[in-house]
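Priority: medium. Attachment 1 of 2:
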């Protein structure tokens, strides 16, 4: 049986909780009865989130930390469990999305993307996996993206880091299944957040944060490996993985309007 965390089992820990999907999912978990330990770099933003939760009759406690700092992540999880009990559900969500263009290639964008989107996840796993495997019970979800399925314009750094996150979760699932830990990957499409507000290209099936959070938490409760939405966009992108490149590149350039750009 796939383990699915319940509020009575312990707390939910969410990284990247100060805004966007992380904030919305923290609030959704709180509404469904969880005590939520919310992490981000901004203590001020976490205090505001805790106040918002309190006003709604729920409980979110801020535990500031930087996902790129392995020791900080270890200390945060230790503090969460000492104060609130075991982490039953970990949502490793913190992420960045730098643009990369061939004409203005910047290696630092790749370092930034992998430091947060991949090693931030690895640091979170290092902090929670030993505790969960010792208890033989736990649920971990990692935010990746449908951009991790195939190469997309401007997403060389972001997409590559999300592809790595997907691969990481797929590979760990084999062991986690035997150790009582549910491993999941969350692959959203376009969600209206501060991260996507700066996009200057079409975003089909754009979804609000609240609806995205509801679908994510529904996915936690169902327990399947992949939580992806909107499905129409996800299936189109999955199809791109099996198309021959001679078809994929012109079709994607047309779909994104990249064949008409002159910049």
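Attachment 2 of 2:
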């Amino acid at each position: 049986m796939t383990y699915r965390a319940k509020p009575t089992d312990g707390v939910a820990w969410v990284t990247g909780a100060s805004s966007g999907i992380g904030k919305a999912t923290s609030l959704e978990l709180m509404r469904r009865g969880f005590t939520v330990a919310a992490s981000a770099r901004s203590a001020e933003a976490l205090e505001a989130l805790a106040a918002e939760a309190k006003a709604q009759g729920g409980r979110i406690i801020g535990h500031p930390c930087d996902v790129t700092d392995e020791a900080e992540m270890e200390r945060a999880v230790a503090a969460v469990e000492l104060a609130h009990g075991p982490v039953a559900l970990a949502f490793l969500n913190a992420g960045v999305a730098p643009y990369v263009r061939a004409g203005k290639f910047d290696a630092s964008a790749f370092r930034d993307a992998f430091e947060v989107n991949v090693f931030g996840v690895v640091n979170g796993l290092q902090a929670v996996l030993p505790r969960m495997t010792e208890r033989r019970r736990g649920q971990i979800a990692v935010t990746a993206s449908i951009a991790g399925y195939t190469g997309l314009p401007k997403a060389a750094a972001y997409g590559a880091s999300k592809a790595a996150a997907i691969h990481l979760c797929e590979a760990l699932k084999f062991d986690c299944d035997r150790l009582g830990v549910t491993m999941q990957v969350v692959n959203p499409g376009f969600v209206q957040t501060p991260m996507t507000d700066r996009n200057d290209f079409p975003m089909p099936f754009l979804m609000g944060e609240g609806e995205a959070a509801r679908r994510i938490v529904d996915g936690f409760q169902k327990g399947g490996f992949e939580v992806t939405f909107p499905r129409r966009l996800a299936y189109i992108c999955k199809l791109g993985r099996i198309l021959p490149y001679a078809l994929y590149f012109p079709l994607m350039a047309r779909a994104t309007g990249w064949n008409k750009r002159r910049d």
